Amino acid sequence: xxxxxxxxxxxxxxxxxxxxxxxxxxxxxxxxxxxxxxxxxxxxxxxxxxxxxxxxxxxxxxxxxxxxxxxxxxxxxxxxxxxxxxxxxxxxxxxxxxxxxxxxxxxxxxxxxxxxxxxxxxxxxxxxxxxxxxxxxxxxxxxxxxxxxxxxxxxxxxxxxxxxxxxxxxxxxxxxxxxxxxxxxxxxxxxxxxxxxxxxxxxxxxxxxxxxxxxxxxxxxxxxxxxxxxxxxxxxxxxxxxxxxxxxxxxxxxxxxxxxxxxxxxxxxxxxxxxxxxxxxxxxxxxxxxxxxxxxxxxxxxxxxxxxxxxxxxxxxxxxxxxxxxxxxxxxxxxxxxxxxxxxx
Length: 345
Fold this sequence. Notes:
This protein is mainly alpha-helical.
């Protein structure tokens, strides 16, 4: 596919209003497509570094497991490799109003409305963020190590991914292939919760198949508590922003809430976690509304999908069929069904 043919397709995929934005999408995707190499050829090439071939082989084991055991798409995605010589493939820009937790959304004909805008160039993302800040918006630029084109292209393994441990690498492959298996335009919480469940259950089965012990329970609990802290802060901020208060008072109360969030984290880290600072880096940067936007989307309906998987007898194809039935429902009915499946607290 030539770059001239790629540009109209990405315009269709993006649905954005800026030709400059189209151009960076086309250029970035073209670079990615051109950098791809078949993994089988790299594995068969003795001139390739032994460490690279070992990591690629591990990735292919997880890729085979995804299709053979998890009934995920059997295609060329993640059977190709591209080293872009950078840790992230895209940078997502999140933005929200100064006193709101509602994201600035961008609507695409195929992907639907999402709470971010993606850039293949970090400086372009940060430049766009600076312009939004001039307008009084809170912004966050987050690097993304991998993403799915939802089956439009054969997505490759990326150089930065191979530095991850086996579990993280396998989990990402399962997660991104789940998006190819089923994607509902415009419902981020549904899509990400579904893919997160496939990732987590897939990893449980993958570890059992390799006779590996389950991951340390305290690490999973720490992550849950971290997310709970942030979601509690979001709830307090939402209540604050709903009040008819003067702007200066809102600003002071907003900053006080972020100080409370930091304090609560330190108390957790230095108390029950016994000094484990695995989330220190997240708190080291300035806090604002936009930094809180992704929280909750990836976890909201995971327990509901877990319940649906159990109802499906642990059969992946039956489970996917049931998820497809949910996806075809009107939004209000779909959320009602998911809430019914969600275990009571």
